[in-house]
Design goal:
The two termini are 34 Å apart. The chain has five helices and 14 strands. It has two domains: 140 residues, START domain (Alpha-D-Glucose-1,6-Bisphosphate, Chain A, domain 4); 114 residues, Alpha-D-Glucose-1,6-Bisphosphate, Chain A, domain 4, CATH 3.30.530.20. By secondary structure, it is of the alpha+beta class. The longest helix has 27 residues.
Length: 264
């Protein structure tokens, strides 16, 4: 993965992943509000050219974009603001391509005009983040496709390096050293969760994804990344089923307090 620059100076990155499911099923997961909300962030999409995409990245962090291409179930493109008051607009494209064996290739492309170093750094940061969310997408499509979600989110800042923050988080969670297929139980002092490790990756932006089977089905995820001179650590717990809203509302404060104490 790397930032590409064309003859006009436009810079772009693309990240892709193969996921289970037919084209129509995968399209719903990446190009509709209920679908993308079930594995990414709460999102509303007006499904038409000129429609508005509203993504709630966190408290007070709403992102707006306008649909420029609406070609279901193959391609969606949208234009939104870049980071910073004077940043060039960013174009985001979602492409779904069928593969054999009831699978699809999902490709996301981000591009900006201007060719500045600041834009390159912004694109590099976005590129590093997608493998984490694509790990969640794979688990969602394999096990929870089409189900509504309730999400627990918690995030903290740490003054040390990303690797140190990640080691602290995974060590306390009991993820360190676990491989795909290993059983996992949430540590003492946290709401009860049990599941099976789907993926742990300690690369430039480390992340983990665990498929939950107790107390209800879901996905527990964690990641760490650099922001300026600090590290940001985050957890997302995606819960599915009729009991999910009540459990998420009950347990989110406890997870937020646990994370706050860990990185205080």
């Amino acid at each position: 993965m790397s930032v590409k620059r064309d003859a006009s100076g436009r810079q772009s990155i693309q990240v892709e992943v193969e996921v289970p499911g037919a084209v129509e099923e995968v399209w719903k997961a990446v190009a509709t509000g209920p679908g993308i909300s079930s594995w990414f962030c709460p999102t509303e999409i007006e499904e038409k050219t000129g429609g508005v995409i509203r993504t709630m990245m966190g408290p007070g962090m709403e992102s707006l974009a306008s649909v420029t291409v609406w070609d279901p179930p193959r391609r969606l493109a949208a234009e939104g603001p870049g980071a910073g008051p004077d940043a060039a607009p960013m174009i985001t494209e979602w492409i779904v391509e069928p593969r054999s064996g009831n699978a699809c290739l999902v490709r996301v492309i981000h591009s900006m005009s201007g060719g500045t170093d600041e834009q390159r750094k912004q694109l590099e940061g976005i590129e590093c983040g997608w493998p984490y969310f694509f790990a969640i997408l794979r688990v969602y499509l394999a096990h929870f496709r089409g189900q509504p979600v309730s999400i627990i989110r918690t995030m903290q800042q740490d003054s040390g390096p990303v690797n140190d923050a990640w080691s602290a988080l995974t060590g306390t969670l009991g993820i360190t050293g676990l491989r795909k297929g290993a059983r996992w139980t949430s540590p003492p002092g946290t709401p009860s969760l049990t599941g099976v490790v789907e993926q742990v990756d300690g690369d430039k932006q480390p992340y983990a994804a665990i498929r939950l089977d107790g107390p209800i089905p879901g996905i527990a995820s964690a990641s760490a990344f650099a922001m300026g001179d600090c590290a940001i650590v985050t957890m997302g717990i995606y819960l599915y089923g009729d009991e999910a809203p009540a459990i998420a509302a009950r347990d989110e404060p406890a997870w937020q307090e646990w994370m706050k104490e860990l990185f205080s």
